[in-house]
Each structure stands twice: as structure tokens, then as C-alpha cells.
Amino acid sequence: MSRFSALMLEVQELRADLQQNFGAVEEMVHQQQQLKKQQSSQYLDLEARIRKLESASKQRTTATKAARPVVQQGQSSEYETYNKAFALVRANKSKEALVALNKLVKKYPNGEYAGDAWYWMGRLYTVTSDKKQAKRAFAQAKTILGRTVKRSPGTPQAERAAAKLKKIP
Prior knowledge:
The protein is mainly alpha-helical.
């Protein structure tokens, strides 16, 4: 009889453990459903934000294209020259980018993108461990970007220049 009692007690304990485990599983399923809902909500929010940014970017691109001067065939504008050079920066082609940026500042020493070009040359020289050239490039960038901020405060160019100035070491 005591053996039977012990077995019954063990069965009751196993049932209690099983019920506890079922409760834990149900709780985990509920949490998983909540996380799925939260993730879906965040995904939809992110998607809406991306669409809004893409729309704003398209509007800015259209406005920029409309505001840019017409370039005669065969000529390359400063804007296009800068974008080609910056594409090399993004592609991690440091040497080619430095050559392109140097050509830009020689061709357009007082151009709209000269300060940006000097800034990126400073960054590239820093990456290539040419501290002397980096220091020189950053000094040029500070001068030109500072002049842009003073000359036309509140404009998009001045805001871009001020942002770059803050990043210069």
C-alpha cells in the first residue's frame, strides 16, 4: 500500500510539473504573439518613414536639378566633378578619390564644393596615415567652409558647411 501511495504522489507531482510547463508554454506563445504584433507595427512605421524620406529626397533632387545651371555638352560642371570624385570616396578608392578631389580644387578653387573636397581629402589622408597632408587639407577645409558659413548664413550650403566644420578634428 505504501508503494501505491508513493506512486500516486509521484503521478500527482508529475501532473503539477506538466501543468506548470503548459502554463509556461502558453505564456511564451502569448509573448511571441505580442512580439510579432510589435515587430509588424515597427516594420510598418519604418516603411512609412522610408517612403516619406524617399519622397522628400525625390523632391530635393528635382529642386536641385532645376536650380543647377545648364552645362554645355562636353563640359563637366563642378557638381558633376564633385559627385564623380565622391563616388570614388564611397567606393573606398582612396588614391583615385584623392586625385579626383585635387583636380576639383585646382579647377574650382573658389567653387561651391571646394570646402567639401578639402574636407574629404583630409579624411582620406587620415585614412592613408599621411597626417601632414591631412592637417593641411583640414586647414583648407576650415577656411573655406568657415567663409561659406559667414557669407550665407541660414542657407543649405551654410548648414552643410557648418556640419562639416563640426566633424573636422
